[in-house]
Amino acid sequence: MTKLFIVIPCYNESEVLFETSKRLKEKFQELIKNQTVTDDSKIIFVDDGSNDNTWQIIEQLHKEYNLFSGCKLSRNRGHQNALLAGLFCAKGNCDAVISMDADLQDDINAIDRFVEEYEKGYEVVYGVRNKRKKDSAFKRITAEGFYKFMNFMGAEIIFNHADYRLLGSKALEGLFEFNEVNLFLRGLVPLVGYKSTKVYYDRNERFAGESKYPLKKMLSFAFDGLSSLSIKPIKMIIHLGSIFVLISVIILIYSLISYFSGNATSGWTSLIVSIWAIGGLNLIAIGIIGEYVGKVFLETKRRPRYIIEEYLK
User: Fold this and answer.
1) Among 96, 106, 213, 302, fewest CB within 10 Å belongs to which?
2) Verdict on whether the full-model pTM lies above 0.90
3) How many helices (H) and strands (E) does the chain have?
4) pLDDT digits (tens, 9 = 90+) for 262-295
5) For residue 292, which of 229, 220, 236 has the smallest C-alpha distance?
């Protein structure tokens, strides 16, 4: 049997926690009855600095059922850091840990298959969405485009995989060898290595509440992940700069030929367009380089990724 921990980051999830805990408790009772997991397995809810009564609900669940544990962060640190804090609490205390969201979009019935694959010898099991039928056309196109773009830019991530995954104890220990302050776990886990496989599942609608990742936040998350895992954007600036230099040389040659042949014409439009184009390119280049410099700055400060205020075992 496998001693299994589940880590669930929570930020203002008071609307879903009772239903989530109810369904997970039923699932664990089934797994324990079938002798799939041990009876000392745990579910860790991580309160990521919520400003509703999320932590009070977690405390109540912990008092009523030994199955539930709670980890309270000192302040909001973001989904990835909250997830890492929960994994830290699980490290050294279980055979395998599964991370999932609190909104019941991740199919809890896939847990059985996660454990089955782990018992076959896989240290990393990725939960991958079958299809995106329930998503709007815009969300489906942008989400799938995100995965393709990230891989094209050199960030090794699993297509249609979010943060629903199983990590064995070896993989979990390996993950904590990475000390980045700028976290993008979807890209870090493949770098850990070890034998891995995929479990496909259908993602459900959110049970209640609002998504914590609107478009603006998703775009920011995507760029953070890209700049944390790849330097290809900087290389692209070099290539783009080279192209502009080549174009300027061609324009210079054309201007000289026109001048000596007596066909020179004055044109403010082409001049202004060139100035704005090159100026815009320079600003974009400085911005991208500045983003990398900023990440280096944060990494060198070595600030803690999270601070655990309270842990209910």
Assistant:
1) 302
2) no
3) 10, 8
4) 665 555 455 655 665 676 677 677 777 776 776 6
5) 229
